[in-house]
Amino acid sequence: MPARQKVLLFLHPKSTVGKGIQIALEFVRFKFQVQTGDIRNLPVLTDDNKGRYAVIVFEDLFMYLGLQSANRNALDKYCREYNVGMIFLLHYHKKPEEDPLLISQVGNFPLRYMTDVRLKDYEINETSPLLRITRPGAVVPLPTPNDWTVFFPYHHTYTAVTRKHRNTRSLAFDSMGHGAADMEQTIENQEKLYPVILDRGIYDGIQRVFFGSTLKFFLNKIMFLDALSYLSYGRLSIPLERYFQIDIDDVFVGIPDTRLLISDVNALLNFQSQLRKNIPGFSFQLGFSGKFIYSGTDAESEADRMLLKMSDEFLWFPHMWSHMQAHWFLNATKLCDYMELNRQFAIRHNFNTSSHYAVAPHHAGVYPVHEQLYYCWKKIWNISSTSTEEYLSLRPDHKRRGFIHKNIMVLPRQTCGLFTHTMVLDMYPGGQEILLEIIDGGSLFQSFLYNQINVFMTHQSNYGNDRLGLFTFDREIKFIYKWTNLRLKYEPPMALARRYFNIYPEEREPLWKNPCAQRRHLEIWSEEKNCNSLPSFVVVGPQKTGTTALYWFLTMHPHVKSNHPSPTTFEEVQFFSGSNYFKGLDWYMSFFPTPENNTVIFEKSATYFDQQVVPKRLTMLLPSKHVVVVLIDPAKRAYSWYQHMRSHNDASASKYSFYETITAQPGKAPPALISLQRRCLDPGFYARHLENWLEYIQSQYIVIVDGDLLKSDPSSAMFNLQTDLGFTEIYQYDKILKFDKRKGFFCQLLPTGKTKCLGRGKGRQYPDMDQLSVKYLDTYYKESNTKLTELLRGINKPIPGWLSEKSVT
Question: Which residues form the Heparan sulphate-N-deacetylase deacetylase domain (predicted)?
Fold first, then answer.
């Protein structure tokens, strides 16, 4: 994210108010950094004389007022220099014994406030410059009880964003103590009584927005987005267009007396026609399971016939022939044959399936991925897009995301409060008030407010019976138009999916999670699969530090098994670091044996260590698993890589000396030489790469192996490694390793007395590195090695011998 498109949050620990702010930012995908607790030290505010944050948010105004004067002055100075605004929330948290009628001063601002105020109504100031998404509408009658903070400004820097309705008494008190009548009269005569105000920065050069409540109130959610946009000069904004799609799953599915009647079909068509007046092209997406047609009552079968007759009024998508779940089919041929039944049904009835969209029953096979489903979708239907609520997980819904797999675009799917069993308003779970809350500013409204693209899941049963589907979306759309300036749009599924990934290109690449980590994912994952064969630890490199020798030593352990070899990358799977990742989890798991009771499985891919994307991918699939890092002097590692490339007849390594390679100047030297240089030098910035790992993994799961010790005394190195990995059985390597003078490294001692060594390509003897290169690299890596020492000490890891020697010198 570019500079100054990030929010700095100051929150109380474990605060529900603060959590609400974070959820709003995660919904709209704004980057943020959180500071919690006692704020004694501010975070770094600038990088290279550029501000890091566009807006600063305090969930509690008193956190700001309570800052040490030096910190507050520094924060204010930053805001003035970089035109950064602040947002404050002031929600009721007084002690019970405090006077609820007291009007208090807000720090040294020309502003007063009163808490525990009960507003009877609420309106938007239509002239406020803050408004962007928010549309001034009718007065909102607020539910009771409600506890608000209202502000009394006495400087023209402040303007109202919201205010009490002038023609309605707006305050009430639980008790009328001494002087309460006079106070009430004072407030009634006060013309400036504002729950939300904008400080335009005239007074002290800093623009601020003050909220007299939390984001729980729906208008505050809208105005919070407006405040971010206004204070960031538009950098923290999302467009006003909201694209949405309504799927009606399970058409023709349902027990008798719950399905559509002819009147319901007419109502559906009429509602679609009404929506098209304001939302051109809008069409319901009808998902069909052809096997169940005509399985209702006679009247419901007549409605089925009408749907077939009017089929060209809708877009249709396959929902599986008899609603079976894809992960039940391990044989792709059988699954494809099963899909073909539904395709033939669509052809017979002239369904318009040109949208190339499908939905899997119960989301099974979409995520966790069932490869047979993706294969058959492409083969039978030429599917281009689908949707699921399971990626990355069902809950929380604000973290649902999209991904692309096997050229099928998977969009996040949203619920609207309706499910297969919600057919009658009076029987809505918890009462119809719950559904109205979902619509009128609740979770359904939030989906439209925060998500630029929504794919909603509904069911055939929601459009018969009480027609709750029509009721819900009709009421929601009217609510949106009343309170926001959002513009609702429609596009067919393929166009919608392309738009989604144009907006969020960072979501194109999937993230594979451990399917066994969530019960819901296990329910829609094949019973033939299990997570036992996933590795318990991974040797991540870096390259040319002795990882192949380590891999070989580990395979000598009677209770340790490695992955099966790859025909192209040999002992390395190289799953997390390259294109293999997009082959999917099934491909990765095929490399591992089914373990016995006391077997430990591992994999080694030395390409993992210095690849930016690997730690996130690896820890997503293998949480709480150890990663093993082998470290040698980075100068020696660079020289070894150069010699490795030279032995493989790399053109640049053959043409240029090592010193010429490491000192080549980008822009002057050939690109191929610079590429070689980077692969020599970049992996050796160990501290930087370890910091990347520590963003995703706890330090206790990082195991450091001294590469020099592994070479000179592998028995000791392997004892340390087994201990660090928590092995219950420590294997005595001194009994099976023997130094081979001819080879120059340790080999395996066989029962016959002979030795078995690594191949000819390992342990090559190279000429000593020239002194110019030694001197250059000592200087080049000095700062990085110092940081590495500090980092390892900070996470309580042993300092390799070679690094200790460099620290002394």
Answer: 241-445
What is the chain's length? 809
The amino acid sitting at 164 is K
- The Cα–Cα gap between 50 and 575 comes to 38
For residue 737, what are the CA distances in angstroms to 357, 548, 632, 718?
A: 59, 15, 21, 11
Residue ranges of the annotated binding site are: 640, 762-766
Q: Can you tell me the distance from the alpha carbon of 18 to that of 23, in angstroms, rounded to the nearest whole number?
A: 9
Q: How confident is the model at residue 402 (pLDDT cuts 50, 70, 90)?
A: very high
Phi, psi of 442 (to 5 degrees): -90, -145
> Are 531 and 622 contacting, i.e. CB atoms less than 8 angstroms apart?
no
228, 46 contact by CB (below 8 A): no
Q: Which one-letter DSSP state was computed for residue 770?
A: P
Least confident of 8-17, 36-45, 282-291, 459-468: 36-45
At 435, the amino acid letter reads: L
Q: Say how many CA atoms lie within 13 Å of 96 toward its Cβ.
A: 0
Residue with tokens 């007849």: 649
* pLDDT bracket for residue 168 (50, 70, 90): very low
Q: Write phi, then psi, for 328 (nearest 5 degrees).
A: -75, -15
The DSSP code sequence of 581-646 is GGG-HHHHHTTSPPP-TT-EEEEE-TTSTT-TTHHHHHHHHSTT-EEEEEE--HHHHHHHHHHHHH
Q: Which H or E run contains 209?
A: strand 208-211
Residue with tokens 């020239």: 770
Give the annotated binding-site residues for 3'-phosphoadenylyl sulfate. 640, 762-766
Burial of 537 from C-beta contacts in 10 A (0-12 / 13-18 / 19+): buried
Q: Look at the alpha carbons of 717, 722, 726, 732 in this order and tell me if their dihedral is positive or negative.
A: negative
What one-letter code names the amino acid at 84? Answer: V
Three-state SS at 663: helix
Residues 6+ apart with CB under 8 A from 543: 606, 607, 609, 637, 641, 683
Round to whole Å and give the CA distance between 233 and 51.
Answer: 14
The set of catalytic residues is 544
Q: What is the pLDDT of residue 167?
A: 36
Residue 121 CB coordination number (10 Å): 17
Residue found under tokens 């106070």: 183
Can you list the domains of the chain with their CATH numbers? 6-231 (3.40.50.880), 249-507 (3.20.20.370), 532-808 (3.40.50.300)
Assigned token pair, 688: 């930087």
Contacts of 572 (CB under 8 A, 6+ apart): 566, 603, 604, 605, 606, 607
Angstrom CA distances, 409 to 129, 314, 320, 572, 617, stand at 39, 22, 19, 30, 20
| Alpha carbons 558 and 735: distance in angstroms, whole number | 13
With a threshold of 0.85, does the pTM exceed it? yes
196 sits in which H/E element: strand 196-199
Cα dist from 713 to 128, 452, 746, whole Å: 74, 59, 9
Q: Which amino acid is at 707?
A: G
CA distances from 530 to 534, 581, 626, 725, 795 (A): 9, 19, 20, 23, 34
Quick one: CA dihedral 381, 385, 387, 390, positive or negative? positive
Report the share of the chain in percent with pLDDT over 70: 93
Give the span between the Cα atoms of 122 and 141, in whole angstroms. Answer: 7
Residue 716's contacts (CB-CB under 8 Å, 6 or more residues apart) are 709
| Helix or strand (DSSP H, E) at 457 | strand 453-459
